[in-house]
């Protein structure tokens, strides 16, 4: 089953089977991390606002875990219950920037659910994000949505991730993708982290290349061709990282769509560059 859902498919779900449907609005940008005001002005019917900085990340440990460390099981469980999620629900996530933030919620919920908690979640990303919904001619709602508290259980730890030592060794065994903008990868511009450049051996694969000019993901065939051209070997492992682990989730989703079994380096370059003993490469 595809991890994507079209606006038309979601509209049908809302109309025919809304009982176990949960829609999450994950609006967040580096230059405007609080998307709540925009959410209140207009969101998908029944959508609950997700605070990425406080519900999809922990804080205070940039030197050891990067700017957006993965949330603890308790943090994510409390948040997911506030969103009204129960075991077996269909959860659809979206944002207003090509799903680069929403993919973080997708990755966390996909890899954190307690396997002993009954039916698993069906987690989807709204292809085309908020722009695609509006382009399809569907209406928005205003104001806050406060669902009944859910009963989802989040397990300890996350599957399909690597740590800083794994990232250092990864280019020797597979492909490590740096999905930041080319100028940050090359070390020409670094607005956020203490060092400029990239992890030695990493290949640049900017996140924007995963979608078309409408913000929809490229077809699986196009994505596979893109990653193969970048050197991803189907017979070897592949991992992605970004600045702080947010947009790298988007590329992990794109790799899954393309048929690759990808892992995520959550600490990403913000963790790597805060360790003085870790080398940094520059240029192509």
Layout of secondary structure:
Blueprint: E1 4-5, H1 7-16, E2 21-25, H2 36-41, E3 48-49, H3 52-55, H4 62-65, H5 73-82, E4 90-94, H6 102-112, E5 122-126, H7 129-135, H8 164-169, E6 175-178, H9 182-186, E7 203-204, H10 220-229, E8 238-241, H11 247-257, E9 262-264, H12 268-272
Parallel strand pairs: 1-5, 2-3, 2-4, 4-5, 6-7, 6-8, 8-9
Helix pairs in contact: 6-11
How would you sum up this structure, described in words?
There is one protein chain. The model has no long low-confidence stretch (mean pLDDT 94). The chain has 2 domains: 132 residues, Oxidized Rhodanese, domain 1 (3-Layer(aba) Sandwich); 109 residues, Rhodanese-like domain (Oxidized Rhodanese, domain 1, 3-Layer(aba) Sandwich), CATH 3.40.250.10. Strand 4, helix 6 and strand 5 form a beta-alpha-beta unit. It has 284 residues and is an alpha/beta fold. The strands form 2 sheets. A 5-stranded parallel sheet has the order 1-5-4-2-3. Helix 6 crosses helix 11. Helix content is 31%, strand content 11%. It has 12 helices and 9 strands.
Features:
2 domains, Rhodanese-like_dom, about 280 residues, TST/MPST-like, about 30% helix, 12 helices, Oxidized Rhodanese, domain 1, alpha/beta, four-stranded parallel sheet
Helix content, binned percent: 25-40%
Distance between the termini: 37 Å
Radius of gyration, whole Å: 18 Å
Number of domains: 2
SSE sequence, one letter per element: EHEHEHHHEHEHHEHEHEHEH
3D shape: globular
**Which structural class is indicated by helix and strand composition?**
alpha/beta
Identify the CATH homologous superfamily of the largest domain.
Answer: Rhodanese-like domain
- The third-level CATH topology of the largest domain is Oxidized Rhodanese, domain 1
Largest sheet: 5 strands, parallel
Mean pLDDT: 94
Unreliable stretches (pLDDT < 50, length at least 5) are none
Put simply, the count of helices is 12
CATH C-level class of the largest domain:
Alpha Beta
**Proportion of residues in extended strands:** 5-15%
Strand order of the largest sheet: 1-5-4-2-3
CATH architecture of the largest domain: 3-Layer(aba) Sandwich
Strands, count: 9
